[in-house]
Specification:
The protein is an all-alpha fold and about 260 residues long. It is built from ten helices and two strands. The protein has one domain. Helix content is about 80%, strand content about 0%. It has a two-stranded antiparallel ribbon with strand order 1-2. A hairpin with a 2-residue loop joins β1 and β2. It is globular, with a radius of gyration of 17 Å. The model has no long low-confidence stretch (mean pLDDT about 80).
Length: about 260
């Protein structure tokens, strides 16, 4: 029962984060699922964090779809940007999804912490230098999206915490960057989840509570409740100042990084 309560409350915060910041929720889902498995099911940490990352990526298929729909209705999605990044993103997601089970658990944890603090700092310090978009050409854009999807798969995120700062740095308006990143996150989650399931077939793992490496109780009690708050908080985004959005986004990353470090 305690695990279910933790999942439900986490789902509320994840829904708000998805709507406000375009996050798929991975920065919260990974530590929540990992430590619930460790403390409530006595799952070995190395196995628990792989399941946490995999569950997070699968969850993004659901939360990402809802967030993408909400942001599209608010005209906060740039479809030309999606086409620019999507090929490299899908290839990278498939590769890391298939090989994620081979990444050591401790490496995942400390990479996760380092990543959260680094992105928070860069986003907080960024100052807009120009109003004109300065995005790289399509080849370089796909190389960047390939790398971003690999990092996203390792950490278990939808990519918003990489794509949002990158797009803002290249002078894409924050609201448009957030909405567009939510769509890109959906494709990362979908592609990686397909590859993760294929990798599971060769893993030998036998857990009645998982589908592949996906922890089904978390999908039921964490992901589904979050959907209620995604549409609501996507509307809040329209009322916030761009500078405040960046500051709140960076603060969220710092808090999550500290929580993961303390655990």
């Amino acid at each position: 029962m305690a695990e279910i309560i933790i999942f439900i409350f986490s789902g509320v915060f994840i829904g708000i984060a998805a709507g406000l910041f375009g996050l798929g929720g991975g920065l919260m889902i990974v530590p929540v699922v990992t430590y619930c498995l460790v403390y409530f099911s006595n799952t070995p940490f190395d196995q628990a964090i792989i399941i946490g990352v995999s569950t997070s990526l699968a969850s993004m298929v659901i939360t990402g779809a809802m967030a993408a729909y909400a942001h599209s209705k608010n005209n906060n999605v740039d479809h030309a940007l999606i086409k620019r990044f999507i090929p490299g993103l899908i290839i990278g997601s498939l590769i890391i999804g298939f090989f994620i089970k081979s990444v050591p658990g401790d490496l995942l944890k400390y990479f996760f912490i380092f990543y959260a603090f680094t992105i928070a700092y860069k986003l907080f310090k960024h100052q807009e230098a120009s109003k004109k978009s300065t995005l790289p050409n399509r080849l370089l854009s796909n190389m960047i999206s390939f790398v971003f999807s690999i990092i996203s798969g390792i950490v278990g995120i939808g990519g918003a915490t990489l794509f949002v700062p990158f797009l803002i740095k290249n002078n894409i308006p924050p609201k448009l960057a957030i909405g567009t990143s939510s769509v890109l996150g959906f494709f990362i989650g979908l592609s990686a989840s397909i590859a993760i399931y294929l990798g599971y077939l060769y893993s030998g793992l036998n857990n009645p509570q998982t589908f592949g490496f996906i922890y089904t109780p978390a999908i039921l009690f964490l992901t589904l409740p979050s959907l209620i708050f995604i549409k609501l908080s996507a509307g809040w985004l329209l009322k916030l100042d761009d500078l405040l959005i960046k500051r709140l986004f960076s603060l969220l990353l710092v808090i999550i990084g500290i929580m993961m470090f303390l655990n």
